[in-house]
Amino acid sequence: MTNKLSRREREKLRQRQEILANALDLFSEKGYHNVSMQEIAGKAEFAIGTLYKFFQNKEDLYKALVLEKCDEFEEAMVEAIEDSDDVADKLRNYIRTKGDRFRSNLPFVRLFLAESKGASFNIKAGLDEELRKRVYSFLHKLAAIFERGIQTQRFKPIASPYSLAVALDGVLDAFLLLWLDAPEHHPYPEDPDTVLVIFFKGLIDS
Amino acid sequence: MTNKLSRREREKLRQRQEILANALDLFSEKGYHNVSMQEIAGKAEFAIGTLYKFFQNKEDLYKALVLEKCDEFEEAMVEAIEDSDDVADKLRNYIRTKGDRFRSNLPFVRLFLAESKGASFNIKAGLDEELRKRVYSFLHKLAAIFERGIQTQRFKPIASPYSLAVALDGVLDAFLLLWLDAPEHHPYPEDPDTVLVIFFKGLIDS
DNA sequence: CTATAAAGTGATGACTAATTCACATTTGGA
DNA sequence: TCCAAATGTGAATTAGTCATCACTTTATAG
Predict the structure, then answer these.
(1) pLDDT reported for residue B200
(2) Measured between alpha carbons, how far is residue B16 from residues B12, B39, B69, B129 in Å?
(3) How far, in Å, CA of A113 to CA of A56, rounded?
């Protein structure tokens, strides 16, 4: 099925994308609440009223933006895991693809975390810096534990202590967030070993 | 060193906490931008002007709120990893403590993700629901890979396929976010195997 | 009991931003 | 060439917020 769109309709779609692209730039830089329709209109070189011809309101514009980008992202991920026959290669491919997409869509990633972490807002407030420092300092403390474990040969040196610390924290956060999202579907990791087993035992015989 | 504060000063501190607690409730529910000073004042049963006796402005209030909670959180974490002598027990203790704090501070956690994930905002917009669906659907696809790997005995059954999927995603996100935050300090996981090694090889000989 | 300081109040000013709509411009077919 | 319909415009409307400050109330000390 090729384009059944008239020139007119194609033009409209192009303009829509134009608006969304400009909005993405602004949102990712300053955060949803700190970008006005005025500003988007200006950057996209349309009048305000025109934006409202394309989107019911600001929220609608934002929704469209996020949803379309996410669909694109998801599609790429699904494709990535269907690419190979070997399960390990599927995983490798997924990791690589996700990283690639991440890197090539930084503005969107930032929008997501930042209309989030309130980046625009926190950064200005100097809060972000303060918190970042704490997080890193703690990660190093965690890493020290892994380091000691490796030195005393309790642990095998499968990765750098710092990587292990990051990984552990990432896994734990992931479990906790899922539980928060849907406690009925995702059991709370009551027993620390349900998390640690992933680190202690390897998937593949060594 | 006990309280060297006068009754007056203690009273003031109590009120300050009162304000912060009420603000936390509101922020975590509706997000920073959707809560007015008016509203905070109302809920805390003070006049607006009084809030400004305690905090220079809205941002200052928010900053104080987040920073104090984070300090509390961090302290608990540091204590947790200093608790035992055995490295594995340190990790267990950390995981348990973080989970406990997470559970007992849900409003704050929500504030953080949500004045973040724009939860307040996205939820209202119905965006969140939409995205959640996509994430879960994809996690199941990932889980299917682990399941097949286990069935075909490529992988050892160290955890449920779904847990493994969650964990892998968590680790990958953690690495990518760190890289985003400070590319100079955190090498981008160019090679998928730097991530996978953590899953494939166990820390402890089996 | 009175005077003085501290704490608390909330109407109000100054401002910002979303959305509307009456009007101008462009388009494309007759 | 002309004109109706579609498209584009941006000043004006509307709604809401932060922050101030002149004032009231409460607490304390003499």
Answers:
(1) 87
(2) 6, 16, 14, 36
(3) 25
B48 CB-to-strand C distance under 7 Å: yes
* B174/A166 touch (CB, cutoff 8 Å), yes or no: yes
Q: Which pLDDT belongs to residue B2?
A: 40
Please report the pLDDT score of residue A131 as a whole number.
87
Checking if the pLDDT of A123 tops 60, the result is no
- A86-100 average pLDDT score: 96
Q: Which of A95, A176, A200 sits opposite B203 (nearest CB)?
A: A200
Q: Which whole-number Å values give the CA distances from B80 to A141, B72, B95, B96, in the listed order?
A: 11, 13, 9, 9
- State whether residue A128 is helix, strand or coil: helix
Contact B175, A166 (CB under 8 A): yes
Residue B39, both tokens: 């509203």
Count of C-beta atoms within a 10 Å radius of residue B59: 16
Contacts of B177 in chain A (CB under 8 A): 113
Contact A146, A120 (CB under 8 A): no
**B137, pLDDT greater than 90:** yes
**Is residue B120 pLDDT above 50, yes or no?**
no
State which residue has its Cα closest to the C1' atom of C28: A8
Which stretch of A6-10, A177-181, B97-101, B159-163 has the lowest confidence by average pLDDT?
A: A6-10
Token pair of B25 as six digits: 């409730």
| C-beta atoms surrounding A120 within 10 Å | 23
Q: Which of A20, A102, A204 is nearest to B176 (CA)?
A: A102
Amino acid in the structure at residue A38:
Q
What is the C-alpha separation between A3 and A12, in angstroms, rounded?
Answer: 14
Which of B171, B178, B179, B194 should we substitute to test contact with A (largest number of A Cβ atoms within 10 Å)? B171
C-alpha span between A105 and B176 (Å, rounded) = 12
CA–CA gap between residue A118 and residue B173 (Å, rounded): 18
Nearest chain A residue to B85, by CA = A145
- Distance (Å, whole) CA A97 – CA A82: 12
Would you call A203 and B156 a contact, using CB atoms and an 8 Å cutoff?
yes
